[in-house]
């Protein structure tokens, strides 16, 4: 869910530093890159070796490290991240940030950064309740610094109460929601993508040339603007984005079911190239050559997923966007398709062989809305996706 994001993780010196290791693992698993920084005290609890091995990057510890300063200065280190996370945030680190002190690498980075900061405090319960810590935390919150935890419970020091660092999974969730800022934050968007495969027998199927590239780029762009994206994909050539909820399907009927389960949504975008027909009787064993007699395949029409959602009445997503892949008379066919299917927008494209669009990296689309048709110049599929995502964000405000 955090692909493309970089977290600057400052590990403070407390027993909860061991949970920092698990947090690194979870962040990496979510697709984030982690730049680890440790205070000297943190290295008393976990080894820089373990931190570096899990992060897959070198650990920064020293403010006056000339090698690192030559490669990447400490100021720059604090700026390349999407979010600075301090876990555990000790009473000492909290006090330094609140008081504006910068006498080591961690505190200097925190002072020099213009990136949002999330603190996961952890300390003895009496320390947490101490008036100076209360004051410092209140000051940091007033300064716009986010905090998560601490939790109440048994503590390593044998006492009970608030002071235990929030669990790594909860910190990961806080990081994810903090990074999900943007004009589409809080919006749930459904995207279908890729081809469908309609089985003939256990080894053969009917498919089409869709690579899933355009749908994938759209899902990525929407997630980049902060949307929660449910990505229902057929067997595509390109991998799904990391930052979306993925539902994999094979057939049109499975896609319909996954779409119905994914609703409600604020927006539904149907970029999939759904097979119009399926083989009426799928053979449960491989069809054999039969002395020269050719097999005859009968077909049934697949459900029209876009039309069903666009015409569903109650629970219909407020904005339904379809695609129209045409090989001739693009505008006329796409305009008719918009009316026939009942969707709000149609993204029309010419997929005739000469264009190289189907399966290629570029697209030239016409956006048809209730106010008319708009030709977009030929551009990269990622650019089409970004432009569409911004149009959607505008339409929702
Ligand atoms: N679509 C769908 N379910 C289907 C067929 C199409 O959801 N069974 C959606 C596609 O995802 C796309 C739009 O409908 O958003 C138009 O798809 P397209 O293949 O261009 O149109 P068809 O409905 O197949 O119409 P035609 O065969 O007449 O071109």
Descriptive report:
The strands form six sheets. An eight-stranded mixed sheet has the order 12-11-8-13-16-17-19-20, sandwiched between helices. Helix 1 runs parallel beside helix 2 and helix 10 packs across helix 14. The chain folds into two domains: 174 residues, Flavin prenyltransferase-like (Rossmann fold), CATH 3.40.50.1950; 201 residues, CoaB-like (Rossmann fold, 3-Layer(aba) Sandwich). The model has no long low-confidence stretch (mean pLDDT 92). It has 397 residues and is of the alpha/beta class. It is built from 14 helices and 21 strands. Cytidine-5'-triphosphate (CTP) binds next to helix 12 and strand 16.
SSE topology:
Elements: E1 6-11, H1 17-29, E2 33-38, H2 48-55, H3 66-71, H4 74-79, E3 83-89, H5 91-99, H6 105-112, E4 117-121, H7 125-129, H8 131-142, E5 146-147, E6 151-154, E7 160-164, H9 168-179, E8 188-193, E9 198-201, E10 204-206, H10 213-224, E11 228-233, E12 245-248, H11 252-262, E13 267-270, E14 277-279, E15 299-301, H12 305-310, E16 319-326, H13 330-341, E17 345-350, E18 362-363, E19 365-369, E20 372-375, E21 379-380, H14 381-396
Parallel strand pairs: 1-2, 1-3, 3-4, 4-5, 8-11, 8-13, 11-12, 13-16, 16-17
Antiparallel strand pairs: 6-7, 9-10, 14-15, 17-19, 18-21, 19-20
Bound molecules: cytidine-5'-triphosphate (CTP).
Residues 192, 252, 270, 272, 274, 276, 302, 304-306, 322-325, 337 line the site of cytidine-5'-triphosphate (CTP).
Strand portion = 15-25%
Structural class of the secondary elements? Answer: alpha/beta
For the record, the CATH architecture of the largest domain stands as 3-Layer(aba) Sandwich
The radius of gyration computed from the alpha-carbon positions, rounded to a whole number of angstroms, is 27 Å
Strand order in the largest sheet: 12-11-8-13-16-17-19-20
User: What's the story with the biggest beta sheet?
Assistant: 8 strands, mixed
Averaging pLDDT over every residue, what do you get?
Answer: 92
Tally of contiguous helical segments: 14
* CATH overall fold name of the largest domain: Rossmann fold
């Amino acid at each position: 869910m955090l692909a493309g994001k970089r977290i600057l993780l400052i590990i403070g010196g407390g027993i909860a530093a061991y949970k920092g290791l698990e947090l690194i693992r979870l962040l990496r698993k979510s697709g984030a890159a982690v730049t680890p920084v440790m205070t000297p005290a943190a290295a008393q609890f976990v080894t820089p070796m373990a931190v570096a091995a899990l992060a897959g990057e070198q650990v920064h510890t020293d403010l006056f490290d000339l090698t690192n300063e030559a490669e990447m200065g400490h100021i720059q280190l604090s700026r390349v991240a999407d979010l600075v996370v301090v876990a555990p945030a000790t009473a000492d680190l909290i006090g330094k940030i609140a008081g504006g002190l910068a006498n080591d690498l961690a505190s200097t980075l925190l002072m020099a950064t213009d990136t949002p900061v999330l603190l996961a405090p952890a300390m003895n319960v009496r320390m947490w309740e101490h008036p100076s810590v209360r004051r410092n935390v209140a000051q940091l919150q007033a300064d716009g610094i986010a905090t998560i935890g601490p939790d109440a419970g048994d503590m390593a020091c044998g006492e009970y109460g608030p002071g235990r660092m929030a669990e790594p999974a909860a910190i990961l969730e806080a990081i994810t929601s903090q990074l999900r800022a943007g004009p589409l934050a809080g919006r749930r968007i459904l995207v279908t993508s890729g081809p469908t495969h309609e089985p003939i027998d256990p080894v053969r199927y009917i498919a089409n040339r869709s690579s899933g590239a355009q749908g994938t780029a759209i899902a990525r762009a929407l997630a980049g603007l902060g949307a929660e994206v449910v990505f229902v994909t057929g067997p595509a050539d390109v991998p799904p984005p990391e930052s979306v909820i993925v539902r994999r399907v094979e057939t049109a009927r499975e896609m319909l079911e996954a779409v119905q389960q994914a609703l409600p949504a604020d927006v539904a975008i149907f970029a999939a190239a759904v097979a119009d027909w399926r083989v009426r009787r799928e053979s449960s064993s491989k069809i054999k050559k039969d002395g020269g007699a050719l097999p005859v395949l009968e077909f049934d029409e697949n459900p029209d997923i876009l039309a069903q959602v666009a015409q569903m009445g109650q629970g219909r997503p407020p904005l339904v966007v379809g695609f129209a892949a045409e090989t001739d008379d693009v505008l006329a066919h796409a305009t008719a398709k918009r009316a026939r299917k009942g969707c709000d927008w149609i993204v029309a494209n010419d997929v005739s062989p000469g264009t190289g669009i189907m399966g290629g990296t570029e697209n030239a689309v016409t956006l048809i809305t209730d106010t008319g048709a708009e030709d977009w110049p030929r551009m990269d599929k990622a650019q089409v996706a970004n432009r569409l995502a911004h149009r959607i964000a505008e339409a929702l405000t």
